[in-house]
Design goal:
The complex is a heterodimer of chains A (about 260) and B (about 240). Chain A is α+β, with helices and mostly antiparallel strands. Chain A has helices at about 1-40, 40-45, 50-55, 60-75, 120-125, 150-160, 195-210, 210-220, 235-245; strands spanning about 80-85, 90-95, 95-105, 105-110, 130-135, 145, 170-175, 180-185, 230-235, 250-255. Chain A is built from nine helices and ten strands. A nine-stranded mixed sheet of chain A has the order 3-2-1-10-5-7-8-9-4. Helices cover about 30% and strands about 25% of the residues of chain B. The model of chain B is unreliable at about 1-5 and about 15-20 (pLDDT under 50). Classes of the chains: A alpha+beta (about 260), B alpha+beta (about 240).
Chain lengths: ~260, ~240
């Protein structure tokens, strides 16, 4: 009996250690890597000496990085996404002109973002982040196919009016090039079966990020933990649909917080 | 359950009644250990995470120092730089009238600088691909991006393209056939965006707010007149 208890405690302790390692240490390893990486980049540090020498100017540095990134984005001919977590707004912009302002209802951001030092912040956010892969429940270009009618009778039969009230569930996930993940999810309740399915997908995505069983899988398969700093934004599904359709295939994102 | 008993020699003693306790001492100890471990598992990572990220953030601040003069000079320089950047960014927004069209929700905003002057419903492309028997395809979609007003017309006449007949199941007339010319459909004004795309009026005003057009942007009569009078040749139209 004692031996069984000891084994249970031992297994429990091992799992505890693994959990501690992956839940608490992995983000710290990532944070440390990002901070050190920026400080080690001598070219960048020479260009941005203030970021390293004057940490008290962090607010100004953040604002400068935000404006730098927006001006770079404005040089592009494509539209882009500007996320301002301070103002709780998501803007769709093109050539520096704001096309749409969407209110963000709720923000969840990993604590790692608050641990970034000045150089790391400037290095990450003073240029637009480029989306490397994305997924969404919204159809990008909802093109319907029709065959030309033979005569006026068939043409009348083909007549239809779109239903303006129908809106797909809102979920849009972007993997950005500097190891950041941005998720936009609808702030409305999950009511329809399609929306509930999307809600489940969202939950499973978030569990994958945090759930320790996945972390253990990482331990077995990889040397370093697969931790991706994530920001989750909740906004109306109508905003998500308009933003997603307004953005090009290769999305640029400017972020500030 | 326990009860107080008085023995023959007058001493009082406590006697435990009933059977043996449900939980034995080792089981209680084991449960306490497990509860502690569970709490440890839940709370400790959070504490470690919180403390470590806070320390890492502060660590950088603690080990970096600078003289106050240098600091102030850099602060002023940085703030000047920021205001220059803000000006540069503001300059990108047109100071004159421009139109922003949302082809997803089928609405529009007429702006001057950052001020919204007028907003309302419109109709944009129905996102339909029409295919003829001979394989020729027509895509009815409003293009996205930045456009400029190329031409302004009053009482515009619509020269119907082939697809206008094909879509209705009618035979396609030859070019310049009288059936091709329609004086009523486009309303009182039209603003050309190039490539056959226009901002114009509509006789089907009840469909405003719905994606029903062949790629053009339809406005109601009042909005169209206001937009026509506000936008000049060369004014920007942003469609997303």
């Amino acid at each position: 009996m004692k031996a069984i208890k000891a084994i249970i405690i031992l297994i429990f302790s091992i799992f505890t250690c693994l959990y501690l390692y992956f839940y608490a240490v992995a983000p710290l390893i990532t944070l440390n890597q990002i901070n050190k990486f920026a400080l080690a980049d001598s070219v960048f540090m020479r260009k941005h000496p203030i970021a390293a020498e004057y940490p008290n100017l962090m607010n100004q540095l953040k604002e400068k990085a935000y404006l730098d990134a927006q001006l770079t984005l404005a040089k592009s001919d494509s539209s882009g996404l500007v996320i301002n977590l301070k103002d709780s707004t998501a803007l769709l912009v093109i050539k520096g002109v704001t096309l749409r302002v969407s209110k963000i209802d709720d923000i969840k951001q990993d604590r790692i973002f608050k641990g970034l030092n000045g150089p790391a912040y400037s290095k990450l956010f003073s240029k637009p982040l480029i989306c490397t892969s994305d997924s969404s429940t919204v159809v990008k270009a909802p093109i319907e196919y029709h065959k030309a009618p033979k005569d006026t009778i068939e043409a009348m039969q083909q007549l239809r009016l779109p239903d303006s009230l129908v809106c797909e569930p809102g979920y849009y996930s972007l993997n950005l090039n500097r190891g950041i993940r941005l998720i936009m999810v609808q702030s409305e309740e999950w009511t329809t079966p399609e929306e509930i399915a999307v809600g489940e997908r969202f939950k499973s995505d978030m569990q994958r990020q945090n759930f320790f069983l996945y972390r253990i899988k990482d331990l077995i398969s990889k040397e370093t933990p697969d931790y991706v700093p994530t920001i989750v934004l909740k906004t109306s599904k109508y905003n998500i649909r308009a933003i997603y359709r307004g953005l090009p295939d290769k999305v640029s994102v400017v972020l500030t917080y | 359950m326990s009860e107080l008993l008085v023995t023959e020699n007058g001493n009082a003693e406590v006697k435990k009644s009933g059977s043996k306790s449900f939980l034995s001492k080792p089981a209680i100890k084991f449960s306490i250990v497990m509860v502690c471990l569970t709490l440890f598992v839940i709370i400790l990572p959070i504490i470690i995470h919180f403390v470590a990220t806070t320390l890492t953030a502060r660590q950088f601040k603690l080990f970096t120092s600078s003289s106050s003069e240098d600091y102030l000079a850099k602060k002023v320089s940085l703030e000047q730089n920021i205001s220059k950047q803000k000006e540069a960014l503001d300059k990108l927004t047109p100071k004159s009238f421009y139109l922003v069209v949302n082809s997803t929700d089928n609405d529009f905003q007429l702006l001057k600088g950052k001020e919204v002057i007028r907003f309302g419903k419109c109709s944009t492309g129905k996102n339909e691909l029409l295919e003829r028997k001979n394989g020729k395809k027509y895509l009815f979609k409003t293009p996205k991006g930045i456009f400029t007003i190329k031409l302004k017309k009053t009482h515009p006449v619509w020269t119907k393209p082939d697809w206008a007949f094909i879509e209705e199941g009618l035979p396609v007339p030859p070019p310049n056939h009288p059936d091709r010319f329609d004086e009523a459909t486009l309303g009182d004004y039209a603003l050309s965006l190039g490539d056959g795309y226009m901002i114009h009026g509509t006789v089907w005003q009840r469909y405003l707010g719905l994606p029903v057009t062949h790629g053009c942007i339809r406005l109601d009569d009042d909005d169209l007149e206001f937009v026509y009078n506000s936008l000049q040749k060369g004014s920007n139209v942003y469609i997303y």
